[in-house]
Amino acid sequence: MVSTTREPLRGEVEVDDTWVGGEQAGLRGSRQLKNRRAALVLVAVEKRGKASGRARMSVIPDFKAATIIPFLTKNVASGSTIYTDGLKSFVGLSEAGFKHVARTQPLRSELRKGAKSAVPLADRAIGNLQQWLIGTYHGVSKAQLQVYLDEFIFRHNRRKTPAAAFQTLLGLGTGRKSTKYEQIRGGKDLNRNLLGLAEATG
After folding, report:
1. What backbone phi and psi angles, to 5 degrees, belong to 11?
2. Less packed terminus of the chain by CB within 10 Å, N or C?
3. What's the rounded Cα separation, in Å, for the pair 107 and 152?
4. Strand, coil or helix: what is 159?
5. Spatial separation of the C-alpha atoms in residues 98 and 117, rounded to whole Å
């Protein structure tokens, strides 16, 4: 459900990260990676006034700038303004060609009391994703999560044009051979699986 020719996000873009997975006892802090069963997901959402525009989501292995910045340079047009929380991994965005606005994110307890999020549109997209996964699938495998994220983004980006979404899906489907299960697990790149080319071995 991913077009290889899709346009990058542009203009003003909010970026945040989240964990997809249930509560887990024994962890020390929200940034602990070791022994965590949940998957780390990076989210980018265009701002269209107070509303959300298009979005991108990706499973990432860690919070490092070397992971986050390549995702953003691939998915967000150079010169765009990126809004983030104060995570240190975002510090290199200016050098990467973006205008960077870092804001302090209130504590969870403050957010529950009505404090405004530093990245409200990204938070809304995260909440919608989590509710969609629970309500539609009731749970997903970590190894296959990227494919579910791709479906969510496809639906999100075409939510106002369902007829065009169906037409786009047909076009994507006729331009590819069937996808092997080995490619789906781990969200491996499906771009090599174009019609007329040898199937990727995974």
Report:
1. 85, -125
2. C
3. 28
4. coil
5. 21
Cβ 39 vs Cβ 18: under 8 Å = no
CA atoms in the 13 A half-sphere facing the CB of 3: 15
Sheet arrangement for strand 99-102: 51-60, 39-48, 12-20, 81-84, 99-102
What tens digit of pLDDT does each residue of 49-103 get? 889 999 999 999 999 999 999 999 999 999 999 999 988 999 999 999 999 999 9
Residue with tokens 């209130």: 106
Task: With beta carbons less than 8 A apart as the criterion, state whether 55 and 149 touch.
Answer: no
Structure tokens at 194: 């174009």
Distances (CA, A) of 148 to 134, 155, 165: 12, 11, 17
Task: Pick the closest to residue 74 from 183, 195, 165, 191 (CA basis).
Answer: 191
**Residues contacting 154, CB < 8 A, separation 6+:** 1, 2, 165, 169
The pair of structure tokens assigned to 34 is 């070791």
> Computed from CA positions of residues 12, 52, 44, 179, in that sequence, does the dihedral angle turn out positive or negative?
negative
